[in-house]
Design a protein that fits this description.
Blueprint lengths: L2 H16 L15 E4 L14 E3 L5 E6 L2 E6 L7 E9 L6 E8 L5 E9 L21 E6 L8 E3 L6 E5 L11 E6 H8 L8 E10 L7 E9 L1
Parallel strand pairs: 8-10
Antiparallel strand pairs: 1-13, 2-5, 3-4, 4-13, 5-12, 6-11, 6-13, 7-8, 7-12, 9-10
């Protein structure tokens, strides 16, 4: 087993401990924008609200960055970390995920997106999407901003239910804030063109990093837009 997969297995165990029972998801009200994460100034990663989960609370903190309240991501080692929120949102109703982020040179930021398909049974997925930890997820997308020339897309399982994509290379501007927008239906269709999006629900959005001790990243104002 590779070092990366050993690390991901450890992440799955961390999520399992944090998510022994799937919490009640956050649901949007009305037709406008839905705030995924501010974050609120009083968000405590060590004791997050019921619809939140984290693999390593010590890797996250709420901090001020350039006058904005942001989620700070500072992994203590090379293992991947994630802090996320359980949702129940239709991508066709709110197709755009927008967030602001910045990263230091050593940081390896990742956005984790989990989906449920109403027309298909749930099956076991590779860590950190193991159904023992994330029982509502049937498909998953990981969007990363690597520092090297990694493949644009790789499959993380044989049945092609977990995809890892590269974010825009232009998006990685060290030490400066960048506003990122992801078109969820477009990205989903490019990966699974045969799926009926009318049966798909976004059930998890998480922010984290692939590790890299000492490499800090910050995320703020993550929202789903109609």
């Amino acid at each position: 087993m590779s070092g990366r997969f050993r690390a991901l297995a450890a992440l799955a165990l961390g999520l399992l401990a944090a998510c022994a029972e799937t919490p009640e998801p956050a649901r949007p009200v009305g037709l406008g924008a839905f705030a995924v994460m501010g974050p609120a100034a009083d968000l405590d990663p060590a004791a997050p609200p019921p619809s939140w989960a984290t693999s390593d609370a010590a890797a996250f903190a709420v901090a001020e960055r350039d006058g904005a309240t942001a989620l700070e991501i500072v992994p203590a080692g090379d293992d991947p970390v994630v802090l996320g929120r359980w949702l129940a949102v239709r991508p066709l109703a709110r197709p755009f995920l927008r967030w602001g982020w910045t990263a230091e040179a050593r940081a390896k930021p990742v956005v984790y997106l989990g989906f449920r398909r109403q027309d298909r049974p749930r099956r076991t997925l590779p860590a950190p999407w193991d159904e023992r930890a994330v029982p509502a997820v049937a498909r998953a997308i990981e969007v990363a901003w690597p520092r090297d020339a990694s493949p644009v897309r790789v499959w993380r399982d044989r049945e092609r239910r977990v995809a890892r994509l590269n974010g825009t290379r232009a998006g990685r501007v060290v030490g400066r804030w960048r506003l990122e927008t992801l078109d969820l239906p477009r990205v989903y269709r490019e990966i699974w063109p045969d799926d009926d999006l009318a049966t798909v629900e976004l059930v998890f959005v998480g922010f984290g990093a692939d590790g890299a001790a000492g490499g800090a990243g910050h995320v703020a104002e993550a929202v789903l837009l109609p």
